[in-house]
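Re: the pair you flagged

First of the two:
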Amino acid sequence: MFPNFIGGQWHAGADATDNVNPSDTRDVVGVYARASAAEATDAIAAAHHALANCQAMTPQARSDALDAVGSEILARKNELADLLAREEGKALPDAQGEVVRAGQIFKFFAGEALRVAGELLASTRPGMTVEITREPVGVVSIITPWNFPIAIPAWKIAPALAYGNAVVFKPAELVPGSAWALAEIISRAGFPPGAFNLVMGRGRDIGDVLLSDPRVSAITFTGSEGTGRKVAQAAIGRAGAMAKFQLEMGGKNPLVVLDDADLQTAVNCAINGAYYATGQRCTASSRLIVTNGIHDRFVAAMRDKLATLPVGDARAAGTVIGPVVDAKQRQQDIDFIALGAREGGQLVVGGEALEVVDGKPGYYLRPALFTATTNDMRINQEEIFGPVACVIRAADADHALAIANDTRFGLSAGVVTTSLKHAAHFKRHLQAGMVMVNAPTAGVDPHVPFGGRKSSSHGPREQGRHAVEFYTTTKTSYVQP
């Protein structure tokens, strides 16, 4: 059994769960411990006790430890990608890209640990100076989703440790393997005991502890909108001091295709953005907003391309679309496909559940494309989180922009056009945290800020140098000689 990691020691826990391969449900990846509420409390206590040692580490020591983590991830990228694809169902090339990104993130924050800046200002009062410095925020609860089981933990854990905090990390129960492998690497990197803690298990068992314990100073969460709101309420409403919180809660991202777009570029962006990683990305372009002049050619090209995409075992050569992560998620996708048909959408390709592929029982689903949809349909307003995309016809560029912004989400958005005028206009007016021109809506470099607006995100941006805003607190000191 793969144990939890608390206070620098491995703890088996009283309960465990099987980690099942969604490409072949006969295959058990491993048996992973489930933490109890008491063990989660112990992890918070260990992190709280370690704070002084975390903050006593020199910037160089933190940098060296983070760099060692990044180097080992990159050196083991094939092994870790195979594990990721096996437990989550992401096609192996996508899994390899995610692992590399995780390694790069740790190396980036190894540099950032040496670049924590302050300010020295003259006061308005004679002879006095003002120092503005940054300090660690304290114990950080990190709660991550199943769709990026090593990259999202990396972009939360690395900055937390870089800036001198202590961490209690709870990964999604569906994907403990990648989290455990990352934790094992971190456990040997040189951080003080208790600086990093791993508690695996069910949110209903340990989630409240990670949110409500007054020793937790900050909570960073990526997951569903509904759970994100509960995190916010818990952080604000607890009896002790309120916790700082950061939320990433999904999207209903538009990809606008204008009449002047290069058709092949538009199809490539839509296929990659909507269907790669089995559509299980918060940045997936699930709304394809296409203007009249190119609509029919775009739909025909998409239909032809989707019919050729190989669906199969995530680790098999040539697989583009792996399985959905589990039975519950696939049923949600199937329910949305049925809903789309009831709402009047036309399913032009895909949408069939496949129980067995190449002799392997798994949670397979052919990528689905709807046409004749309108933006007010539920399939265009609610996050499906699967290989399903809907085409919405727009009269012109202005109409397309209005449709794109007509959503409660605002994470990522894209436009495909050969016009510099249109590109500039859409970059300025799309209501999203990230805008892509002639590129898929999914995919952000590890050194730039990630996040959205509206109901997609709350709090400072993740990744890049902007992460310092969440993982540190600012102190202003006045000095009179």
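Second of the two:
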Amino acid sequence: MTNIGILGAGRVGTNLADKLAAAGHHVTLGARSPGDTTAHPAPRITIADQRTTAGTTDIVINATPGDSSLDRLTDLRTELSGKILIDVSNATRDGDDGLPGDLCYPGSSLAEKLQAALPSTHVVKTLNTMLFMVMAAPETLASPPTVYVSGDDENAKKTVTGLLGDLGWQPAWIEDLGDIRTAGATEAMILVVPHILRRHGFQPFAVSLAR
């Protein structure tokens, strides 16, 4: 059992919390304030503020809005020191229809910015190329999906790969792209998402690699 903190108590955070708790981990769901979540804690899930969540858990997942994640997590530098930070967010600016429009960090990525701002933290980028419901239920798609992993620390990536298995990801579906610089490629994949949603509606999908 691992103590996992999730920063962000919206759809992404609560979805991951439920599956990880069901796999036997203890999860702390970090909300900006108690009123920011309507989640009803299940067994093995507690709710705390984000600073407490970052400071009292062993592995932290960033599920906060990507356009504000850098400032928010930089403020938690001390609490995140020495820990694995799993970044599942994409830093985008919304278009007029509320869907992702432009990248906040063209030529880079949120994960790269986080790693530079948090040099004592092991940042791993993953789970950012799919709709939130697929993150914890990849088996529900008709075709085998792909989840990409980027990070500088090999041991951190191995740990994250184990957690992906707890979320239902089979080893053959996990693609290690290399160091944290490769996160720029997967974060840019978010630009295809609004076009798919406009044509097909809010249906589960993942941007996957076919062989």
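The chain has a mean pLDDT of 93.

-B.
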